[in-house]
Automatic annotation (TrEMBL):
Lineage: Bacteria, Pseudomonadati, Pseudomonadota, Alphaproteobacteria, Hyphomicrobiales
Protein name, UniProt field: dTDP-4-dehydrorhamnose reductase
Catalyzed reactions per annotation: dTDP-beta-L-rhamnose + NADP(+) = dTDP-4-dehydro-beta-L-rhamnose + NADPH + H(+)
Molecular-function GO terms, alphabetical: dTDP-4-dehydrorhamnose reductase activity
Gene that this sequence comes from: rfbD
GO biological process: dTDP-rhamnose biosynthetic process
EC number: 1.1.1.133
Cofactors named for this entry: Mg(2+)
Domain RmlD-like substrate binding: 1-289
Length: 291
């Protein structure tokens, strides 16, 4: 199976390149050859790739920067996603599009299901929601996978930020009143390979549409940080104390959802896919970064 993926250095594309193995040949397509904000570059690159499935894993992911550059985020996350889906439809190839927990406002008291009302609190979330809608409108053979709090040995992410800050700090303030599901990009890659394998042979409508896909178990950002530093200490790093602070004490340009936990039942029922427990995958990632 040939899988074309948007982006070159992103966490999910790097993970797919690592995990493709013998199951799939991964063709990563990024700038300048494929620029999501340029429709003709998207269609030309995807046509040349001659693939069986397209994964849209590239995005404008700078959540705070998007607040002052909503047009930029929209060009990539909304218009760009639409270009990918239209090209996939024209080529007759299914598309797998990655989206986010930040499409929700976070006011619900339980994990979000796929049909719960969306209501993004920031520009990034608005652009990603618009992207989902454009993908689903452009192509009936589409799977939208909402994931969250992605980390990996690759690129920039919260886990790597914590390890970097921990090199020079004895304590850190981390918000304890935002809860969600830390998710390993390598686990996302394994699941994407499984889902891609299924959709190329099985046209059932039950396998299309929106699905929530995150690491199992929940955490606040402070819990996540404590787990990272606990694992790091077991690998010889000096301890770092986490001060559990409130969102109000960590001001940022973008407002983030207080609850962004995602209920993964639909994915489990349709595909039989379940991601590992988040603490187990954090351990794998820390072990790679601190061998
Ligand atoms: N990171 C997270 O915590 C979460 C991410 N997601 C979603 O998961 C997906 C993957 O995220 P992740 O791997 O973490 O992303 P990263 O931030 O690690 O990487 C983003 C990728 O997008 C590429 N990119 C950005 N703009 C363009 C453009 N105009 N044209 C082509 N490529 C572009 C980058 O290219 P280059 O390599 O050239 O820099 C890079 O490869 C995204 O859809 C994201 O919205 C969902 C929930 C959480
Ligand atoms: C670095 C740091 C962050 N924080 C807080 C800020 C924020 O509320 C939370 C996480 O910070 P980040 O900047 O990593 O989070 P953020 O960039 O908002 O992460 C999001 O990225 C996008 C792409 C998504 O799709 C989301 O699922 C989510 O992963 O931790 C602290 O409290 N202390 C700190 O020292
Ligand atoms: Mg960030």
């Amino acid at each position: 199976m040939r899988i074309a993926v948007t982006g070159l250095q992103g966490q999910v594309v790097a993970s797919l390149l690592e995990r493709g193995g013998s199951r799939a040949q991964i063709i990563a397509l990024g700038r300048p050859q494929l620029d999501l904000s340029d429709a003709s570059s998207v269609s030309a690159a995807l046509e040349t790739a001659r693939c069986d499935v397209i994964v849209n894993a590239a995005a404008y992911t700078a959540v705070d920067k998007a607040e002052s550059d909503e047009d930029g985020a929209m060009r990539v996350n909304a218009a760009g996603a639409g270009h990918v889906a239209r090209s996939a439809a024209a080529l007759g190839v299914p598309v797998l599009h990655i989206s986010t927990d930040y499409v929700f406002d976070g006011a619900l008291e339980r994990p979000y299901r796929e049909d719960d009302a969306t209501g993004p609190t920031g520009a990034y979330g608005r652009s990603k929601l618009e992207g989902e809608q454009r993908v689903l409108a452009a192509h009936p053979d589409a799977v939208v996978l909402r994931t969250a709090w992605v980390y990996s040995p690759f690129g920039a992410n919260f886990l790597k930020t914590m390890l970097r800050l921990g090199e020079t700090r004895e304590e850190l303030g981390v918000v304890a009143d935002q809860i969600g599901n830390p998710t390993s990009a390598l686990d996302i890659a394994d699941a994407v390979l499984e889902i891609a394998t299924r959709i190329v042979v099985d046209p059932s409508p039950a396998l299309r549409g929106v699905f929530h896909m995150t690491g199992q178990g929940e955490a606040s950002w402070a819990d996540f940080a404590e787990e990272i530093f606990g694992q790091a200490q077991r690998r010889g790093r000096k301890p770092v104390r986490i001060n559990r602070i409130a969102t109000a004490d960590y001001p940022t340009p973008a407002r983030r959802p207080a609850n962004s936990r995602l209920d993964n039942s639909k994915l489990r029922q349709a595909y039989g896919v379940i991601l590992p427990q988040w603490r187990d995958s954090v351990s794998d990632c820390v072990a790679r970064l601190l061998p």
